[in-house]
Amino acid sequence: MAKVATKDIAEMKDDQLIHYIKDSREELFNLRFRHATGELENTSSIKGAKKALARGLTVASQRNLDVNSEIQRG
Fold first, then answer.
1. CA-based angle 59:60:66, to the nearest 5?
2. Is the confidence at residue 74, as pLDDT, over 80?
3. Which of 70, 62, 8 is nearest to 25 (CA)?
4. Rounded to an integer, what distance in angstroms lies between the CA atom of residue 59 and that of residue 22?
5. Which of 13, 15, 40, 47 could hold 34 in an S-S bridge, CB 3.0 to 4.6 Å?
6. Neighbours of 6 (CB within 10 A)
7. Per-residue DSSP letters for 1-53?
8. In which band, very low, low, confident or very high, does the pLDDT at 60 lie, cut at 50, 70 and 90?
9. From CA 32, how far away is CA 18, in angstroms rounded?
């Protein structure tokens, strides 16, 4: 996933933000899995993925979005 500026995340529509958070969670899971199996060479990418997810979740929290229920719905 390409790095997205915080300003761009804040300007996303709600459905785009939900999609961004879902993708960030999937990427973080895949990076952790690759790290656990010894396939991941650049472990600093985990830190970047965590930050990206945190940025998205912060914006969602500010908008009072229930991210978990939105992801489960669609």
1. 170
2. no
3. 70
4. 14
5. 40
6. 13
7. -----HHHHHTS-HHHHHHHHHHHHHHHHHHHHHHHTT--S-THHHHHHHHHH
8. very high
9. 21
The token pair that represents 17 in the structure block: 């933000």
Residue reference for tokens 């990206």: 52
CA atoms of 68 and 46, how far apart (whole Å): 22
Residue type, 5: A
User: What is the rounded distance in angstroms from the CA atom of residue 45 to the CA atom of residue 69?
Assistant: 28
pTM for the structure as a whole: 0.89
Which tokens go with 46?
A: 């985990």
